[in-house]
Design goal:
The chain has helices at 12-32, 60-68, 99-102, 105-114, 148-160. It has 171 residues and is mainly alpha-helical. It has a domain at 60-160: Cytochrome Bc1 Complex, Chain D, domain 2. α2 packs across α5 (148-160) and α4 (105-114) crosses α5 (148-160). The radius of gyration is 23 Å and the shape is globular. The N and C termini lie far apart (87 Å).
Length: 171
Amino acid sequence: MPGSGRSRPKSLAEARRLVAALALLAAWPVAAAAETVPPGAVAVVGDGIPRPLTDRPGDPARGRAIVVDRQKGLCLLCHTGPFPEQRFPGTLAPDLAGAGSRWNEAQLRLRLVDGRLLNPDSIMPAYYRIDGFVRVARAFAGRPILEAQDVEDVVAFLATLREEPVKKESP
């Protein structure tokens, strides 16, 4: 097709390769997308959520970045932990140091998804719940605070925190 900028396959084999490549390209986004468990469909077993929320493993480095991010994770508003570069951590909630030795991944996951299932009086936000809230800003309605992969990244990071906090002596 002169002037169209397109070229025709020169052989039947080349045409088949082109069709196969286009089929793979069309299917690629679906195959590459991580499968996630939607909020509200997580299965709580005992005091944890044993099944990960995604089919991709959590990344501890990304999880740490979320934990110390005061805009996204907000963890340091209430928690302290092994983050010497972070100033003014909270003291309302348990120290995150040693979290991986106190709780397993399933228990950590439940605490992030919705800790109120364990303690209805908890002040910890439900990071992966979308219903049952009052006065939610329109921009956040129907959306969890953290995406499923973010939760898995934070779980992976907290699971690495094995060393218990150092007790400070009173003066």
